[in-house]
Amino acid sequence: MTVFHFFNCAILTFGPHAVYYSATPLSEYDTLGTSIKAAVVYLATALVKLICLATFLKVSESDSFDPYQEFLKALIGFIDVAGLYFALTQLTHRNISQNHKFQAVGLGWAFADSVLHRLAPLWVGARGLEFTWDYILQGLEANANLVLSISLAALGSLMWLRKNKPKTLIPIIYLSAGIVATMPSITSYLRRGLGWHFPKVVGFELFTSLVMAFISWQLFSVCQRPSV
Amino acid sequence: MAPRKPREREMLFDSVIALVFILVACVDLCDGATVVDVYRLIQYDMSGVPFGSRLASLNHHAASLHFSPHADLSRTVLLIPLRELNMSFVKEYIAESKPLGGLIFLLPRMFSFENKDGMGSNHQDESKEPLKNVLDELEKILIHANLPYPVYFAFEDDNIDAVLTDIKKNDVTGQPATATTGGYKFVVSATEPKKVVSPPITNIQGWLAGLKTDDDAHQLPTIAIVASYDTFGAAPALSVGSDSNGSGIVALLEVARLFSLLYSNPKTRGQYNLLFGLTSGGPYNYNGTHKWLRSFDQRLRESIDYAICLDSIGSWENELWIHVSKPPENAFIKKIHEDFSSVAEELGFKVNLKHKKINISNPRVAWEHEQFSRLRVTAATLSELSTAPEFLEKTGGLVDGRHFVNEAAIVRSVKLIAESLARHIYGHQGKNIQIFADNSNLAVNPSYVRSWLDVLSQTPRVAPFFSKSDPFVMALKKELEDHTDDVNLHRDVLDGIVTFYDSTSTKLNIYQVASVTFDLLLLLVLGSYLIVLFSFLVITTRGLDDLISLFRRPPSRKVKTA
């Protein structure tokens, strides 16, 4: 791997965040501050998760899939939902519509996640001589993560910020949010429980994220119609 | 307008999903770096002339023998299995000094002393002989060549065989590994080899004192049994020399063990002193033997009745050779030959006499006994070789391994030597007495022979790379102490005919690297992806008109200025 390859993988990992910001109306409504605040909330949430993982989870010698430990990990993963709730409801925003607010929060959230989880391995990998597809797959995973984060933010916006949503859609909204929130546990199960290889897991993540994005978009569109 | 947009969006979604799955299907995870033990071709100077591999560090792409005839190999490492080696290719590249990035020869596992399989089998596999001959010839060529690039030996295993298969596939399809096409890169991180200054040599001497009668005022005569223990080969880390001269060492130790039993009892102690010598510097005109003999005081030297040197007695079948420098008509030579011949005849094989005159002005010392003969001591060499090897040949190189040594031959050699010495010592000429008969207390111990042969077959023994207190030398000393009295180490340095360099073994890292072309294509794909993503996001959030308007602003500005 060369610096050129590192550059390529960095583009794949962080480029979509910049493209999303500049392509959508976010750049016109001065939502950068909101994204930064959401990123800070993400870092705080990650710290809390780290402390909880260290406190309640025991380190397993074997790499096998332990259902109880994974369930505990999923519960701790819901701290992300709490953090997202805080970011969506408690942060002060001046003159930003709900439509753009959830996108800014989701974007900041996903960017912070990519920086925290992928920048260091990418940087270390650039010094190695061995070529491997892992870093390209990590970049693709970052794309899937961006889509999932914005989907979760959209669903969260529907759950906590929109008051007059149709009653028949409420279970679907909560079910979709639950699926998106447990996606890390699902991928962990696929990887360690079923023994899937990294390319297959990344493919599944991309497919699932696009499906959930489509569903979230449809739900958001339907909920917007009565106000029009 | 309204009903068209959802269809366009769904089509975009489908195409993105299809692209993602195509990309995922193309992904093929490859293994990480492979690490292989490699053993470096020896580097040495002879009278200032450089020989062997003159570089140690390696950092080049790899290729196989299936490279294009017009390919430039100056920055390429050739990975050549011994099984596919074409000797004319090697000769051509070496004789014409064609540039190479490096050479790595893959040896079959039968040449590895770490190979545990078939250790007990002494059968001559039919596929062994051709490979042995090829390796022998290759070793001669490499030892006498000056190669300005790194040359290494490695053993076949699953990892490197898989790498070789990949490299061959790439070469056949006309995709040799270069900086622009990717492929496998071989890396050996090594420092510049340094000269070995004053390489130490150590001779080990053991003594069994004979029975002295009170009325005899003279010094007892002495018989010397000598074997050289160090080796020389194309790869110093692989030069175990099972036959040359591991077999000689084993035979000497067993003879010492047998005679220590006889000499421990005053009733069976002979009236000859026995001097056992394990000498160093054998490949270099028996330099260690020369120094050892010069350290003798005159009385000891004059008391030597004769010396018998053991050299390569581990893979013969029907006949052995006694090499002498004095004329066969000499009374002492005749007696030695008669002793050995009669015992051999009883044991069912033949011992031939071979006379080779010493040319004093020639520095070449072909046999160990010649060092004794130059000092006017009667001496002979017992060997399975009928002719003297050339300098630095048959010195325990790559082909001389455990698989090619027959311990039964060593057992018979020990019996011959011990019985002949006993007849000389106890004066049993003409009588059909076997002191070392099978199934007796004094029988040759095959287990002893086998275990020591196994130890020697796992110990590379090129003299300059031994330390002064090498554990192997200490082990030989201790073993000799168990059987003889007055064990001494005689230390000296090798004379300056040959200068050696270090760095004999290291690790080879094999990386599979991507090409610059691949990364350029990847950059193109990523750029396209981001452009498509940008367009998709603009269309879905602002509408198609906004996307078009991004490219229409410049004409409108022109209109304004006009």
Automatic annotation (TrEMBL), chain A:
The lineage of its organism: Eukaryota, Viridiplantae, Streptophyta, Embryophyta, Tracheophyta. This is BOS complex subunit TMEM147. The keyword DNA damage does not apply. It holds the Pfam family DUF2053. It is a multi-pass membrane protein. GO terms for cellular component: endoplasmic reticulum membrane; plasma membrane. It is found in: Cell membrane; Endoplasmic reticulum membrane. InterPro entries: TMEM147 (IPR019164). Its main location: membrane. Keywords: Cell membrane, Endoplasmic reticulum, Membrane, Transmembrane, Transmembrane helix. The chain crosses the membrane at residues 39-59, 71-92, 168-190, 202-220. PANTHER family: BOS COMPLEX SUBUNIT TMEM147 (PTHR12869:SF0), SMALL SEVEN TRANSMEMBRANE DOMAIN-CONTAINING PROTEIN (PTHR12869). Belongs to the TMEM147 family.
Automatic annotation (TrEMBL), chain B:
The lineage of its organism: Eukaryota, Viridiplantae, Streptophyta, Embryophyta, Tracheophyta. It comes from the Eukaryota. The gene is LOC100779713. It comes from Glycine max (Soybean). PANTHER family: NICALIN. The chain crosses the membrane at residues 520-544. The keyword Amino-acid biosynthesis does not apply. This is Nicalin. Belongs to the nicastrin family. Keywords: Endoplasmic reticulum, Glycoprotein, Membrane, Signal, Transmembrane, Transmembrane helix. GO terms for biological process: regulation of signal transduction.
